[in-house]
Amino acid sequence: MSTGSSVMLGLLPLSSAERTMARHEVVEVELRRSEDGGGWEADDSVIIYNRVPKTASTSFTNIAYDLCSRNRFHVLHINTTKNNPVMSLQDQVRFVRNVTTWREMKPGFYHGHVAYLDFSKYGVKGKPMYINVVRDPIERLVSYYYFLRFGDDYRPGLRRRKQGDKKTFDECVSSGGSDCAPEKLWLQIPFFCGHHSECWNAGSRWALEQAKYNLVNEYLLVGVTEELEDFIMILEAVLPRFFKGATELYRSGKKSHLRKTTEKKPPTKETIAKLQQSDIWKIENEFYEFALEHFQFVRAHAVREKDGELYVLAQSFFYEKIYPKLS
């Protein structure tokens, strides 16, 4: 069926004049809804980016900081004690209450290394929109390993926890070190799984299935580090209230949009093969592949490539036979 033809079974296609009138009526309805304050993307919108460490989260968050004044929204960093991603029950209640009722901070973009929190459990009206980014689990661990020792180009003078340790990732894996153990791969699944105790049991298939469920049902969009620009482009199309101008800002590469871990040495094939023997890697990688496939599915229905460039698709649906007629 060609674009713009009738999608109502058993009805003849609308004429050009009828289609123009239908589109005009839709514009009138949407304009009146906007004037009534009923717009979907209203000024009380909240986004929570519960960012997984070493997935290009700082690069992406800095774009939000650059855009917040221009696009008139607030950015808030969720800083937890000792970077603990699990909140106490009382802090969960406080956080949900803050996000829900703090009107001065709406529209708001919250970000921090915290596990997913289901707002519907706390009896509040309205839920925030969750977004996130995932990365190949071994690449993420390697980046984090060297980050703890050498830092990155974002704050090069800051002393890191493992500074002075010159052991390479390959040497760590070969010697069975704790910083590169398969258990350290277990991070992306619990971040998406949430605050249930089973989420943090490394290798739990229940946690994997819960993480998959949350990704599909509770997150507006989950991108991948390797295709971050596409993730940003889709967000700009879906949520221009927050992300208008984000794609160009990312492409320009200004400020700290491209944060890189220093002194990072790629692992050998032998090191990778050893980690891939672990059941923990297999489950974490299954989640990553699931997230990647879903993102590529979303992208395939949102953008098109032309002459090596990606373009966001224009609206491809409209309404017909709108009654009663507006006066």
Structure description:
By secondary structure, the protein is α/β, with parallel strands linked by helices. It has one domain: P-loop containing nucleotide triphosphate hydrolases (Rossmann fold). Helix content is 43%, strand content 10%. The protein has a five-stranded parallel sheet with strand order 2-3-1-4-5, with helices on both faces. A two-stranded antiparallel ribbon has the order 6-7.
Could you provide a short overview of the structure?
It is a single-pass type II membrane protein. The chain is of the alpha/beta class and 327 residues long.
Write the layout of secondary structure elements.
Blueprint: H1 16-35, E1 46-49, H2 57-71, E2 74-77, H3 89-101, E3 108-111, E4 129-134, H4 137-150, H5 169-175, H6 188-193, H7 205-218, E5 219-224, H8 228-238, H9 240-243, H10 246-252, H11 269-276, H12 279-300, E6 303-306, E7 309-312
Parallel strand pairs: 1-3, 1-4, 2-3, 4-5
Antiparallel strand pairs: 6-7
